[in-house]
Amino acid sequence: MLNIKVIPEDYVQKAAKCAQVALGCSRAAHQAALRGSIKLNPQLAALTPKVRAFVERSAALCEPEHVHVCDGSEAEAGALLHLMHQQGTVKPLPQYDNCWLTRTDPADVARVESRTFICSEHERDVVPIARAGRKSALGNYIAPHDYDKAVADRFPGCMRGRTMYVIPFSMGPVGSPLSKIGVEVTDSPYVVYSMRVMTRMGNKVLEALRKDEQFVRCLHSVGRTHGTNTAGWPCDPQRTVILHRPIDNEIISYGSGYGGNSLLGKKCFALRLGSVLARREGWLAEHMLIVGITDPKGRKRYIAAAFPSACGKTNLAMMTPTLPGYKVECVGDDIAWMKFDNNGVLRAINPENGFFGVAPGTSTSTNPIAMASVFRNTVFTNVAETAEGGVWWEGMGKAPEALIDWKGQPWDPSKKTPAAHPNSRFCTPAEQCPIIDGDWESAEGVPISAILLGGRRPAGVPLVIEARDWQHGVFMGAAMRSEATAAAEHSGKVVMHDPFAMRPFFGYNFGEYLRHWLSMPQAGRQMPKIFHVNWFRKDQQGKFIWPGFGENSRVLDWVLRRCDDEPCHDSTPLGYVPAPGALNTNGLSDLNMNELFSIPKDFWMQEADAIEKYFKEEVGDDLPNEMWDELNKLRKNIQQS
Ligand code: OXD
Ligand code: MN
Questions:
Q1: What pLDDT score does 22 carry?
Q2: C or N: which end of the chain has fewer Cβ atoms within 10 Å?
Q3: Does the CB atom of residue 504 touch ligand 1 within 6 A?
Q4: Out of 311, 330, 427, 433, which one is annotated catalytic?
Q5: Where are the beta strands (DSSP E) in 468-622?
């Protein structure tokens, strides 16, 4: 749980009062707190009353030197870059057009799941009831009292001497009925600049707020600096905490400037709070890419796909298909908000406006489209720098002679440390993607025909399996597992359970999440088919069996044919797989189809045991019975095979 510092009682009381002032006290009280303490920017007068009250309360708590309301303009973005350059946060990359390099503090390089909490009155709102005596690791709960204390311990005066930026932002196209608005206040110009890429922000959102004043309050500070790169990257890694209080539409993040910890529209809003809103309002907020696929007959369909962080979502979202006649267009690479429309069609929007993609592994052969997107108007974080003022990362191609590594030191390949951090990123406007879909900003969203689930499974799991029906698909999602990646603080090649690729992002009890998914089929709705895919199976020698990347279009071809109900499948104990010859493998040599699709009985008996253990230990009484029914079916099918 939270490591709350022991501090003198009178300080706690003072700070708690201050926090109360900041987070929902009466107007009179916060005005009293403000009196004489900070200079207020005249821009504040233009804010709607609720936004202004939030900004003023935040300012009273954090005591910034200045408050700046972001308009989202080019001029503002230029000024931010200039300031960050002066402060040593970014440096220009002269080899490209308007590209910048940031090196973070080495202690602030990824999402910190262990310090990310959801607050609610009852623990069970957030964490499933696990087997007696064990605490479920699904969902990190914080009680309201500890939440307030965590804020009181960290925020009072934390922005002294800094500017507090106010970022009005929209998740989704401004004005779409599927979009939602947030306001993030932050003391990090890097966050402002990145939010301008990752969301729609500025005056147009303030305008929208004048019509509907509802918004999610996001408070962020990099904290009173205790990092090592204090000039360029202020942060307070020892005391980092990321808090969500869904009942109040509130996110509060302290101590980290990195990605999902600080760009609060992304994981915090679009997934954690989003999943709560989605359940309340009857839609789905998911960790999924969205892609449009046109087949050789010219028919276009869209699919959404859930893979855990750093498992190739961006690659699939921007795939260059090798199958002749196919065309792929990108709607989004990380998050999907999906809702059934009045005609029963599931429609999806990408709530984001940019790509915050993992750089290592991206190359002209793995993802030429990303490579064609990222060398303009991009902030690179923690990649290596070349002598010519360019960037490099592992997997991009041959390493240039002289490199500066992500820590700013000359890189010595003999030391075997990576030149770029494994979770180094590019932050790039989506509109720069050469295959961005014509409808990527469509207000009503794009129609979803199929949902793919998957992960990194080196052993036992076939290339593609179609769920027999929706309930079976929900079970597949609940049972998802994947090798850990560098996107969060986990290390090693351990295979982790990651249901629906949402394990770090559930905003409420996972058992209830499953019930919500199970409630989706309703009269008049056209349910998308659900598939599980695994591009990462290895042979006895540890080599990938399937070539992946553009060749995954062969799997998409089969998926779309199944969406047309073409009888090109065989039934197996796990679900449907391509019938012999149905997966188009023309031109692929040395492909061991038997190994790719084998269903080893011992492996699957163990897998069923692991799923049972996980369900019992992590979800317990909150698991819907339908999931036990599906597990029993799986066991029976495997036993009889
Ligand atoms: C991401 C993640 O940054 O999933 O998208 O960690
Ligand atoms: Mn992600």
A1: 32
A2: N
A3: no
A4: 311
A5: 481-483, 495-497, 529-533, 569-572, 575-578
CA distance 430 to 376: 11
Q: Which residues of the chain have pLDDT under 70?
A: 1-42, 131-133, 485-492
Q: Is 147 in the pocket of ligand 1 (CB under 6 A)?
A: no
Q: Tell me how far apart the alpha carbons of residues 185 and 544 are, in angstroms, rounded to a whole number.
A: 45
What atom in ligand 1 is closest to the CA of residue 259?
3
pLDDT of residue 41: 55
**Is residue 64 within 8 Å of residue 163, measured between CB atoms?**
yes
Q: Which atom of ligand 1 is nearest to the CA of 110?
A: 6
pLDDT of residue 13: 39
Q: How far is the CA of 524 from the centre of ligand 1 (A)?
A: 35
Q: How far is the CA of 633 from the centre of ligand 2 (A)?
A: 32
**Paired strand residues for 97:** 376
Contact present, 220 and 240 (Cβ < 8 Å): no
For CA atoms 539, 542, 547, 552, the dihedral sign is positive
Rg (CA), the chain: 24
> Quick check: CB of 309 below 6 Å from ligand 1?
yes
**311 an active-site residue?**
yes
Which ligand 1 atom minimizes the distance to the CA of 358?
3
Model-level pTM?
0.92
Model confidence pLDDT, tens digit, residues 25-82: 333 333 433 443 334 456 787 899 999 999 999 999 999 999 999 999 999 999 999 9
Tell the residue number behind the tokens 């932002």, with chain if given. 169
pLDDT at 46: 83
Written as six digits, the tokens of 522 are 């309703």
Indicate if the alpha-carbon torsion angle 514, 517, 523, 529 is positive or negative.
Answer: negative
At CA 481, angle to CA 127 and CA 275, rounded to 5? Answer: 40
Asked if residue 356 has its Cβ within 6 Å of ligand 1, the reply is: yes
Determine the Cα–Cα distance for residues 36 and 53; give it in Å rounded to an integer: 17
pLDDT at 581: 96
At 4 the pLDDT is 25
Q: Give distance in angstroms: CA of 514 to centre of ligand 1.
A: 22
Tokens of 548: 């992946």
Nearest listed ligand to the Cα of residue 260? 1
Question: Which ligand 1 atom is nearest residue 487's CA?
Answer: 6
Nearest CA to ligand 1 atom 2: 309
% of the chain beyond a pLDDT of 90: 86
For residue 332, report the distance from its CA to the centre of ligand 2, in Å: 11
Please indicate whether residue 498, judged by its CB atom, sits closer than 6 Å to ligand 1: no
- Can you give the pLDDT at residue 487? 60
Residue 362 phi, psi (nearest 5): -85, 125
Question: How much distance in Å is there from the Cα of 488 to the middle of ligand 1?
Answer: 8
313 lines ligand 1 (CB under 6 A): no
Give 326's contacts (C-beta < 8 A, 6+ positions apart): 293, 294, 295, 296, 553, 556, 557
> What is the 601 CA–ligand 1 centroid distance (Å)?
34
pLDDT of residue 493: 72
**Locus of tokens 């014509």:** 438
Q: In this predicted structure, what is the pLDDT of residue 134?
A: 74
Which atom of ligand 1 is found nearest the CA of 309?
A: 4
Beta strand segments in 187-228, E: 200-201, 216-221
Using CA positions, which residue lies closest to atom 3 of ligand 1?
260
Give dist(CA 554, CA 552) in Å, integer: 5
Q: How open is the CA angle 330-333-334, to the nearest 5 degrees?
A: 150
**Planar angle of CA 188, 190, 194, nearest 5 degrees:** 125
- Can you say how many angstroms the Cα of residue 612 is from the centroid of all Cα atoms in its chain? 27
